[in-house]
Amino acid sequence: MIVFIALTLMLILPLCRSLQATIEWLQHRQAQQQHRPALTLRVSRVRRQRRYLQLTLVATDGQALPPARAGQHIQLFGTDAAGQQISRAYSLAQDCLHSHFYRLVIKAETGGRLSSKLFDTVRAGDLLQASIPKGHFILKRSRKPLVLVAGGVGITPMLAMAYQALRQRRPVTLFYQARTAADLLFHRLFSRLPGLHYVPVLSQPTPDWLGGHGRINSVQLLALGGRQATYYCCANAAMTAQLSSDLAKAGVTLHYELFSAGATQQSCLLQYKDISADAAGFSSVLDALNSAGAAIPSDCRGGSCGLCKKRLIKGEIIQMLDPAAPLAAGEVLTCCIQAKTALVLAD
Question: What are the backbone dihedrals phi and psi of residue 149, each rounded to the nearest 5 degrees, phi first?
Fold first, then answer.
């Protein structure tokens, strides 16, 4: 009997390992397929405002587009000025009840490989390659009052969430942080949107500005929303971290998505295969390694696609984004982390 069991195990174990390897390969292939271009969209309208580019995209055949949920994004695929393939995620800035167009607002970042090229070159009638709507930063159905907090171009998913919540007859307050009045996207729309309590706050206001001054803080949020409201935020890393920490002290959870993380000034050695890089000056381990030639694939750069997944062999990390893609023990998404100490990573 013991010999029979041993022989059976000798036959079964290799099959199990082979099956597990096959499953992992299929999962990897599925992830790759899901984050390749799935749509060809035509640019039906282009608007440029300062360094912001607003695009309205429609299907080439005029039919309805795949549905989106408030807070989701689509991936645009293209080439940079050097002809290198590149993709970036942009939130849908619209009422997602509409399915015949996608609207994006893209900030032409200094040094932005795709955003700057689009700002300079895209015209009505152009065709763009895109993904279907995706992303885990979505507004969940609730009857609770909703407080939305946006900073800069982080207003885009907040617009979609505001429309959805107002349709559900929820009390909605929108705090919008910008430098000047000219930086307030959709300002006229928000000022007139029925049912929305709109609170614009400027850090560099002119003397004739009648709205909020300074910086949005947790005291302001709680004064209007209270501890029973649900809070969502899309802003830069520093603003998000401060609000999240301060609200947590009051027992309130802040649901958030970062549209940009600040570059770390901490010098830490990063090692991946035969690639070495310094973390200083980069917003993520992914960016630092790829700048050194690692060529780690990524699509969403926000923790949802999982393509930049690696094993952390050694070192301590700072979790900048909450990953939505499934991770096994010891795995990290390099787009979501910065280095706290020297890191060693592997496939």
Answer: -125, 125
305 Cβ partners below 8 Å, 6+ apart?
A: 31, 34, 35, 134, 298, 299, 325
**107: containing domain:** 39-130
Q: What is the CA radius of gyration of the chain?
A: 22
Query: Tokens in use for 298?
Result: 């990524």
**Phi, psi torsion values for 31, nearest 5 degrees:** -60, -40
As given in the structure block, the two tokens for residue 325 are 């893609």
Distance CA 159, CA 136 (A): 16
For the entire predicted model, the pTM comes to: 0.77
DSSP string, 280-321: TT-SSHHHHHHHTT-----SSSSSSS-TTEEEEEE--EEE-S
pLDDT tens digits for range 256-289: 877 666 677 889 999 999 999 999 988 899 989 9
Question: What does the mean pLDDT of the chain come to?
Answer: 87
Output the domain CATH number for residue 280.
3.10.20.30
123 part of a folded domain: yes
d(CA 159, CA 300): 20
